């Protein structure tokens, strides 16, 4: 695994992008943005950087450069934009915490995460630690949304969750 010292020798971080301090290849100049955009599971695209034959995600290298240690867990992009590598948009979180800051799914039909139609009512639920917690059936959409939002606060979901 790359050390802080080696990363510091190779890269600089300008507050938004990881840049090469050295010329790593013939087509790449010192000062160029490091890495290339590559797909990841679930259709996300991240900037990846190859060092000594190994691929690293740029946001993890940025964390290493700024904090002088590798992140302990996953790096969450707070705003959901996997290419926004500004330090204030990155946080070191557990897998569970990262799951509490997801975008609204494309398949969502109500416009509100955790709320959907069930027969002629609105059903509210939330998934916590692999368990789905039923919050109730409501005739009014706003009541179902309110129940879901209260559960998000109770279970410490990020404010951006579902946006």
Low-confidence stretches: none
Largest sheet: 3 strands, antiparallel
Structural domains: how many: 2
CATH class of the largest domain: Alpha Beta
Helix count equals 4
Give the termini distance in whole angstroms.
Answer: 35 Å
* Helix share bin: 10-25%
**Percentage of residues in DSSP E strands:** 25-35%
Report on the architecture of this protein:
This protein has 163 residues and is an alpha+beta fold. It folds into 2 domains: 4-98, Alpha-Beta Complex (Homing Intron 3 (I-Ppo) Encoded Endonuclease, Chain A); 102-154, 2-Layer Sandwich (GCC-box Binding Domain). 22% of the residues lie in helices and 30% in strands. It contains 4 helices and 10 strands, in the order αβββββαββαβββα. Strands 3-4-5 form a 3-stranded antiparallel sheet. It is elongated, with a radius of gyration of 20 Å. The model has no long low-confidence stretch (mean pLDDT 92).
Notable features of this structure?
163 residues, alpha+beta, Homing Intron 3 (I-Ppo) Encoded Endonuclease, Chain A, GCC-box Binding Domain, 2 domains, three-stranded antiparallel sheet, 4 helices, elongated
Describe the structure concisely for a colleague.
The protein is of the alpha+beta class and 163 residues long. The chain has helices spanning 4-10, 58-67, 95-99, 141-154; strands at residues 11-13, 18-20, 36-39, 45-51, 54-57, 74-77, 90-93, 115-118, 121-128, 131-138.
């Amino acid at each position: 695994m790359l050390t802080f010292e080696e990363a510091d020798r190779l890269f600089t971080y300008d507050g938004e992008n990881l840049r090469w301090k050295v010329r790593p290849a013939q087509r790449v100049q010192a000062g160029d943005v490091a890495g290339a955009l590559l797909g990841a599971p679930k259709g996300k695209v991240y900037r990846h950087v190859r060092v000594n034959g190994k691929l690293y995600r740029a946001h993890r290298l940025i964390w290493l450069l700024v904090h002088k240690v590798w992140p302990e867990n996953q790096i969450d992009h707070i705003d959901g934009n996997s290419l926004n590598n500004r330090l204030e948009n990155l946080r070191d979180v557990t897998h569970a915490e990262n799951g509490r800051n997801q975008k609204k799914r494309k398949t969502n039909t109500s416009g509100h995460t955790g709320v959907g139609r069930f027969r002629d009512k609105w059903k509210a639920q939330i998934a916590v630690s692999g368990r789905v917690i039923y919050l109730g059936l409501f005739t009014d959409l706003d009541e179902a949304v309110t129940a879901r939002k209260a559960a998000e606060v109770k279970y410490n979901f990020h404010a951006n969750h579902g946006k």
